[in-house]
Amino acid sequence: MEGNKALIIGYVTLVVVGLVVLGVALGGVGSDTPGDTSADELVEQTPLTAENADIQQFDSDEAFYDYVSAGQGTNRMTGGVTTAERQTSGDEVAVEDGGGDGAEVSTQDSDREIADGPDRIAESNVQVAELDEPDIVKTDGERFYYAPREGGAVTPRLVREEGHNRKQSEPGIHVVDASEPGDPGQIGRIDASGEMLQTGDRLVVFEKAEGRIVGYNVTDPENPAQTWEQPLEAQLVTARETGGQLYVVTETQVGLGTECPLEPMGNDAAIDCGDVYAPRTQASVDGTYTAFSIDAESGEIEDSVSFVGTGGDTVVYMSPSSLYITYTTGASETDMLTEYISSSEVVPDRVTERVREIQSYDISERSKAREIGATMQAWLRSLPDQQRQDINQELSAEFDAYVAERQTELTQTSVVRVDVTDRTLEVAATGTVPGEPLNQFALSEHEGTLRVTTTIPPAGSAESVNNLYVLDSESLERQDEITGMGKGQRVYAVRYVDDTAYVVTFRQVDPFYVIDFEDPRDPELLGDLKLPGFSSYLHPADDNHVIGIGQEDRQVKATLYDVTDPTDPVVGDDLVLPERFSAVEQSHHAFLIDRRHEVFFLPAQDRGLVVDYSGGELEVVASVAAEGTVERARYVDDYLYVFAGDEVIVLDQTNWKRTTTLELEG
User: Fold this and answer.
1) CA 139 to CA 143: how far, in whole Å?
2) 562 and 572 in contact (C-beta within 8 Å)?
3) CA proximity to 501, closest of 541, 468, 533
4) What pLDDT does residue 484 have?
């Protein structure tokens, strides 16, 4: 975030030297397209037809094109959290809770009880217990389906710097029989590769590289049979599964050359551009997002809904009844320039009047910015050298203060709520909060509210700040907020556990915040704790402890937060490892907790650690060395399966001894 602040200071410098390119600096101008219109003009010229007043459908392809054209010139001054800064979770899918507990629903293990087989088997660690998420390891209760990532999950930087020894994995899905937990065996293989969802006798594979979603019948696990296929002609954002129904969200890039209809999942599921939803007021547009409802058994697309948005910063969160999708926008650069110049005590009236005139023109944002810059530059060049230098300094200070006062206006995140009822999808409401959420864990539905934690980027002399907003889950109207957390920092992790929220912000130290929601619409900041390093993933251990996984001094770190007294949280214990990368940083699905044995599994490059957290302390009780990158772990009865490259290592949890290593064949 400090880099973003420096960037904005750079924008001020551009103002000082003439404002010729300030439009670009404030967020990047759109293409120079004649005929761009303002938001108000667009709404008047192209009335939208849906009933919802905030987000409505277009009535024609032409209206869609006009909105997209204007939206590509409505630019963003966000300086927000970049995609690279996010804690990713696979394809921006939900975080798994190691033991599969739905963190916002319960803190119990989500075992699958098997009639003829293991007594318990760990499923994916998910954000909401009822909603499964795609991952590279799935189970039907007796067998695992495992799709090793090609080349493992170690970053190229680590390979170069440390000569990391990893075993290359061949593309494909291995079927591993776990009916005899201590003696697993490979019984089949599927010639496909990608994250999976498993429900009943259907295994659904998201093959992004091949551009398709494929359903397999795995009734006979030794001979899986493909039963359906859907094309995937857009970017897969995320997916969920519940009750045999898939909910898939895609992103389609749009621009001036976009053709209608849109075909994110092929011609048979084409989206008429007139059916796309958009905010009534003009917003930035470089993509459309489509949510599909798909029957997992047949692959039939049963419903879909689409709306405009911006790429690279969308977060998807799903509750049992609603799908929430966010997109982040920013202030129009020319609107901001015009407002600033009009309020300036330095700029003469004649220049202000000319700038207002330019802003009223029916031309593109790029053209407006160019004309405003030329007007300002002509004025500055007309001044004597010393006067010009003095005015430059005044402009710099004035603009810095102006931007700081409007910090929360510069980055806005829109939230769209899609109702999910009887396999149908319907856009129900929209809302807006300042700032930008980190990932899906920044959102949580709770007792009639939607909680959203965001980072407000720095602006002018104002440092970044982190806020938590409470919205009514039906209307998405703002109810209350907690503001001012971690000034000069950004959010690194969020976790909601029933009526409590835990938030981690970071720059040089890691403040850990505890927020109470005893009254869901009136949150209260109870306590905070500062410690070195940061946690990028949080997981509830028990009623009094939260596990944090992150880094300190570029080394993997586990922290056990003691929240027995939420007004005075403390560090119960911590563990710093020599490794510099954990798969948990890439996906929450890499974290596993087993409450029966009071341990969690922490992958660290090509080593996996079993950490006992009982008694309020952290103790490594087992360390597993693998040939490839350790990516996942699952328990089966009292055996721990460690998935790394092309091998599955099995530990006996009663003594933590390695019992066998299953070498997977391609």
Assistant:
1) 6
2) yes
3) 468
4) 94
d(Cα 319, Cα 553) in Å, to the nearest integer?
Answer: 36
Cα–Cα distance measured from residue 34 to residue 26, given in angstroms and rounded to the nearest whole number: 21
DSSP run (H or E) holding 471: strand 465-472
pLDDT at 256: 79
**What tokens were used for 435?**
């700032």
Element (H, E) at 40: helix 39-45
Pick the range with the lowest mean pLDDT from 106-120, 274-288, 521-535: 106-120
The mean pLDDT value of the chain amounts to: 84
For 383-410, give the secondary structure using H, E and C. Answer: CCHHHHHHHHHHHHHHHHHHHHHCHHHH
Residue-level pLDDT at 105:
41
Q: For the stretch 350-380, what's the b/e string if a residue is b when 16 or more beta carbons lie within 10 angstroms of its beta carbon? A: ebbebbeebbeeebbbbbbbbbbbebbeebb
- Strand order across the 225-231 sheet: 195-199, 202-207, 212-217, 225-231
DSSP 154-207: --HHHHHHH--------SSEEEEE-SSTTS-EEEEEES--SEEEEETTEEEEEE
* Nearest-angstrom CA–CA distance, 27 and 330: 8
Q: pTM score, two decimals?
A: 0.85
Average pLDDT score over residue span 112-140: 88
Residue 17 confidence (pLDDT) above 70 = no
d(CA 397, CA 350): 22
State the amino acid at position 590 in one-letter form. Answer: A
- Going from the C-alpha of 68 to that of each of 142, 334, 417, the distances in angstroms are 50, 18, 22
With contact defined as beta carbons under 8 Å apart, do 545 and 613 qualify? yes
H or E element in which residue 337 lies: helix 333-343
Distance CA 133, CA 13 (A): 46
Q: How far apart are CA 415 and CA 313, in angstroms?
A: 12
d(CA 246, CA 299): 9
Total residue count of the chain as it appears in this document: 666
Rg, Å, the chain Cα set: 26
What the block records as the tokens of 68 is 């997209």
Cα 435 from Cα 443, distance rounded (Å): 13
Confidence of residue 24 (pLDDT cuts 50, 70, 90): very low
How far is it between the farthest Cα atoms of the chain? Answer: 90
- CA 617 to mean position of chain CA atoms: 31
* Tokens found for residue 225: 């049979």
The C-alpha torsion from 24 through 28 and 32 to 33, rounded to 10°, is -140
Calculate what percentage of the chain has a pLDDT beyond 70.
Answer: 82
Extract the tokens encoding 566: 């939420």
Would you state the pLDDT for residue 340?
93
Of 587, 617, 584, 618, the residue nearest 602 (C-alpha): 584
Other CB atoms closer than 10 Å to residue 598's CB: what's the count?
Answer: 14
The distance from CA 438 to its chain's CA centroid, rounded to whole angstroms, is 6
DSSP, collapsed to helix, strand or coil, labels residue 419 as strand
Sign, Cα dihedral of 493, 494, 497, 502 = positive
Give me the numbers of helices (H) and strands (E) for the chain, helices first please.
10, 38
Contact 46, 59 (CB under 8 A): yes
Q: Which of 405, 519, 486, 370 is nearest to 24 (CA)?
A: 370
Cα–Cα separations (whole angstroms), residue 39 to 66, 337, 362, 453: 11, 17, 12, 28
457's tokens: 């980027």
- 619 three-state secondary structure: strand
Beta strands 570-576 and 490-497 are unpaired
* CA angle 493–494–497, rounded 5-degree value: 140
In the block, tokens 């994995």 appear at 169
* In contact, 399 and 410? CB cutoff 8 Å: no
Token look-up 């110049």 returns: 341
DSSP assignment of 292-334? EEEETTT--EEEEEEEEE-SS---EEE-SSEEEEEEEEE--HH
